[in-house]
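Field: COMPLEX_INPUT
Field: COMPONENT_COUNT = two
Field: RESIDUE_TOTAL = 746
Field: MODE = joint
Values follow.
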Amino acid sequence: MTTTRSAQACRRWIAVVDDEESVRKALHRLFTAFDLDATTFASGRDFLDALPERRPDCLVLDLQMRAPNGFDVLAELAASGARLPVVIITAHDEPETRARCLSAGAAAYLCKPVHDQDLLNAIATAINGSAG
Amino acid sequence: MLLVILLALAARAPRLGFWESYAWLVAIVVISILEAVLIGILYLEWRRRHRAERSLAERLAFEELLSEVHADLVSIQTEDIDAPVMRALARISESLGVDKGTLMDYERREAGVYHQLRWSRHPDIPIPPADVAVHYPWTLARMRAGQVNRFSRLDELPPEASVDRRSFERVGTQSHIAVPLMLDDAVLGTMFFATVDQPREWPDDLVKRLQLLAKAFAFVLARRRSDTAVRESRQLSTAIVESLPDKVVVIDRAGTIIAMNERDRTTGGSFASDEHLGVNYLDLWRRPVLGGAGAVVDVRAGVASVLAGTLAQFATEFQLTDGNRARWFEFRARPLRRAAGGAVLARVDITDRKLAEAEARSMREELARVVRMTTLGQLTATIAHEVNQPLTGIMANAQAARKFLQSATPNLEEIREIIEDIIEDDQRASRVLQRLRSMLRRRESELVTIDVNQLISDVVRFLHSDAVIRNVEVIQELEPALPTFPGDLVQLQQVLVNLVLNGLEAMAGVPVESRRILIRTERRADALRVVVTDSGPGLGDKPLDDLFELFHTTKTDGMGLGLPIARSIVEAHGGHLHASNNPAGGATFSFTLPLAGYRSGVETSSSRPSMPGV
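Field: COMPLEX_OUTPUT
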């Protein structure tokens, strides 16, 4: 788990779950560059285990991972009643996958490789939507 | 008269006693008788001496005849014995003073009639019928039994020889003698003599002499038989060699060509012909030729090893360019099984077979390519993942760097690290694309050195995303330090991708915690074995060979090409692919890969080696 905390308390805190180290590292850099705090997790289980300690403002979640995969994480979040804004980023886009994620409670569904503004906008929208 | 005179004188003489009167007369009679006896004895002695001289002369003449006949017969060529034998027969007949002489060879027989050489004193003397078995059955039986058969006049023939007697009568035969030509206990023929004009005695000493002559003839017939047998055996061997579809060359221990068949004499060019007889075969192979799969074949060394006995057999395939046409040959060298050693070399043109194999291979390659494309279709999720993951890293890193650079004091160290990561991700994406391209490329078989463990690790890495998505654990149990072998890398990758992917798909309905694929490698005597075991539902009760039938599929989106093409690829590498159900559930696919590697294929080459006989 890699965490960057900004000195300002108002900064958003993003959790990233992806089994690929290079992707985790790159997304962490991106969020840092845009003044967001980010914590990365190598598996869905790591994230779910850490969740009771601290709830992120938004979760950026990969789908294709060893169990629990992205769907499993979504399902567990829904089951636990944690209304956490989730942005799905996936390398393999299928219409039914998109529909399945959105119906399982995901706020946004983006395809890799993801553009920075799209991702930041999706995160902002997800957080605002959740707050609203 | 003398007695009358004596009696008259006695009558006129004075009367004396009887003894006194006749004593002188008695003396004269006695003396006369003694004289007559003496004369008789002298006559008998003269006759005895005369007979002895005649006998000696006859014996000398016979010895002379015997030595002449021997000398004549010993030096004859066995291809044509008739003329010299006929000459000898005439000499003997003339010497015996007979009217007819015949020599019969029991081995030579035409239309059931024994070969006969006949001599007769006059052309008018009737010729007996040639079919001895029909006209002289009794005589022939005795002759074949090795008995001397003789009669001085026809009356001596026994009643059971009535057929023979009529035949003898018909041609005017008065006396006859038949002497068997025997060598050891074998009766090879018979010589017989006959008189026509008058009866004739055949005394025992004549028979003995004739038997000596018969030996000389028997020897000639025996030599002819053995020479014929040798010649026929040689002709048979030659005919066998000539009839072989292969080009055959026989060499002695030193490598000198001692025999070859006629084949390819018409093709001209670089193949051996008669002028190579006696030439050292090893000298004809001046340099190695091109074998299968681009390998260089040293035929000369192979043949030399067979000659030296260090190699039980040498076999290879090689290619030569005859004019503009590449031709393929199969070559075998085996020891010549004889005390003096040597080798038999056979070469057969397998160009047609090679072309057919090439066509089959080209079809298989095309089919394999289609199957690879289909497989990649099944792997779109994996491929998208494999490509998009590094692209995601690149994109995020690049955008972060751009943002960092907008700052008044950009952290250049951070930016340098970002660029390093971008390069690494870029390389990773490039490797994925390269692998995809190699799988989709239309290509001919390309043989490289295969490290099967490396190949398995690569395939597992390639399918990693798929295994992850499907929640399947892939375990590798690879025997370390396995030998390498020549093979087609892409095709073998395809076999393994197919087997692993089948396993991954088979486990969709299995609880996540039990989804497992085990890939094992092990060393066999002269091959490697790869075993892929899954914990899926198994292959069912249907015959497992059906799995390898083209277009046999149990999947809704499958074409039924994957396993047939996998089997054909393994078989092209000389191995076998088998399927089985595990006792504890799940399926196992295993294949062998002989270390000898891929079967030789038709490769073209511009090199044109010198081409000896075979």
